[in-house]
Amino acid sequence: MRLKDEQKFEAIIRATLELTHEKGLAGIKMSELARKAGIATGSLYTYFEDKQDILLSVDREVRSRGAAYLMQASTDDEENYEGRVKTYVGQYADFVSANREAILFIDLLQRSPFMTERSYQDTVDQYRFTLELVEEGQNAGLVREGDPEEMVHVIDSIIKMLIDHRQTHLKGAYDEEVRNRCKEYVWAVLKK
């Protein structure tokens, strides 16, 4: 359901991401979410059926913003396929680094009982351009054979793990060195 007040929706998104970061998905209570968003608990039920509806709505919005960013940032200026893949990976790494709470939320939701098959399919549809990039490489004989959807998950995992390792375990900042490692490791895994 679409909210009449976009500011409320933004507040709900922020509150959901913050609470997920603090407590995980299971720890989110509707009353606490409403308080953190600065709205009445009853208002949540005006716009959403239940907690799952809120979580899936926030997921759709966050993923939609990510897909829009990547599609806008992606360019076909690169003539060679490897360059296009590395450009995409660099942009995706930038997005992951700048949106850590959103990425945590997405990852937790994907593994939770709140995720539905329909929501998963919506995600695949939103990021179809990534699947098409992998398939293009396979068709040209540049990328190893295999399920393109699995390869997209591998790309996603490499980027998230390298950034998480740097920022969480090494307490370092995301920088050009990490960005370049993401590009090199992903290409090393994909290339034939």
UniProtKB/TrEMBL annotation:
One of its GO terms (molecular function) is DNA binding. The keyword DNA-binding applies. Residues 29-48 bind DNA. Residues 6-66 form the HTH tetR-type domain. Keywords: DNA-binding. InterPro entries: BscR_C, Homeodomain-like_sf, HTH-type_Tx_Regulator, HTH_TetR, Tet_transcr_reg_TetR-rel_C_sf. SUPFAM superfamilies: Homeodomain-like (SSF46689), Tetracyclin repressor-like, C-terminal domain (SSF48498). Pfam families: TetR_C_10, TetR_N. Gene3D superfamilies: Tetracycline Repressor, domain 2. This is Transcriptional regulator, TetR family.
